[in-house]
Amino acid sequence: MTMQIERFESKEVLYTRALEIIKQVKAQGATTFGLATGGTMEPLYEKLRQSDIDFSDAISFNLDEYVGLDVQHDQSYNYYMHKQLFDCKPFKMSYLPNGLAENAEAEANRYEQLLQQHELDFQLLGIGVNGHIAFNEPGTSFASETHLVDLQPSTLEANARFFDSIEDVPKQAYTMGIQSILRAKVILLIATGEKKRAVLEQVIAGEYTENNPATALVKHNNVIILTDLQEGEN
Ligand code: PGA
User: Fold this and answer.
1) What digits encode the pLDDT tens for the residues 88-103?
2) Which residues line ligand 1 (CB under 6 A)?
3) In angstroms, rounded to a whole number, what is the distance separating the alpha carbons of residues 148 and 197?
4) What is the Cα–Cα distance from 44 to 201, expressed in whole angstroms?
5) Cα torsion through 40, 11, 213, 131, rounded to 10
């Protein structure tokens, strides 16, 4: 197991480092990239857009997608990815779960099969205030693969800022499972802001509990954590 933790005083330096890691992984031959959404990733996508990186020979998979939103809906993760990255830096092929699929089980299976056919060389991850990775909420089995989830109240609240009201936040999502995520060869977790401290420090301390999904990462052999949280402060 190796977990490399890098703490930054400046977010600018943190995101420059994240860009450098992605460029390095790509230069070393990575062709399949797992991508993430959320506010944390926006400064990174800005850096990628401004960089000379070329993903046209690579494939991307996103971690998750809301159920019930059309790809044109401005809060769908499909829309987010186009705006943040794909329109400027297209991949050869980009996969996301289909939030409008009629049969949820078939959609989850389809996505999981695709993932198993394309080994992830790299996975970008954020972390929720409750420790979720992708939409794997506390209590999710560490053995889980792609599945449909009911979002927890804390996640609905955290994401309400992106919608007109909390009632508009979709209540369900498709998400890669924890096992699907752990299959990636390199995982880059970015966690910024005090709200993430409690769950992040559990990961760094090596705790391993399904109550904090991100702690599954402690058993992975190549995780890099970038944070602006300093040790011992609060
Ligand atoms: P955030 O979301 O980047 O908007 O804080 C992170 C997450 O829920 O994974």
Assistant:
1) 999 999 999 999 999 9
2) 38-40, 126-128
3) 27
4) 22
5) -80
CA distance 154 to 151: 8
Mean per-residue pLDDT pooled into runs of 10, the chain (234 residues) = 93 98 98 97 98 98 96 95 98 98 97 97 97 96 97 91 94 98 98 97 98 98 98 74
Which amino acid does the sequence have at 7?
R
> What single-letter amino acid sits at 145?
E
Which one from 78, 107, 112, 130 is the annotated catalytic residue? 130
Residue nearest to atom 2 of ligand 1 (CA): 38
Choose among 56, 6, 17: nearest CA to 225: 6
Q: What is the pTM of this model?
A: 0.96
Q: Which sign does the torsion angle of CA 216, 131, 210, 67 carry? A: negative
Asked whether the beta carbons of 173 and 75 are under 8 A apart, the reply is no
Q: Which two tokens stand for residue 174?
A: 């498709």
For CA atoms 202, 204, 205, 206, the dihedral sign is: positive
**Among the listed residues 145, 146, 142, the one whose alpha carbon sits nearest the alpha carbon of residue 220:** 142
- In ligand 1, the atom with minimum distance to the C-alpha of 195 is 5
Instruction: Say whether 119 is catalytic.
Output: no
- CA-155 nearest atom, ligand 1: 8
Distance CA 162, CA 77 (A): 12
